[in-house]
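Researcher: Next sequence.
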Amino acid sequence: MAAILSALIFGNIASISIHQIIEDQTVFMTNIHALFLKPLFLLTGAYLGVYLLYTLALHVLNDISNSN
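Model: Next structure:
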């Protein structure tokens, strides 16, 4: 449940920020990188990164143990 909520928040922040940049027609690198200064964006992205690595490791370990 937390992964779904994090993905929704992460995606919404990214899409709103990109929409604002396109709407203002200011595609400067500083405007795009300002997205990385938002704490909620960083928090949800960090959670998703750890969750995805955990899920990948879990699947790999299950595949290894089932192959023996």
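Model: The mean pLDDT is 88. The radius of gyration is 17 Å.
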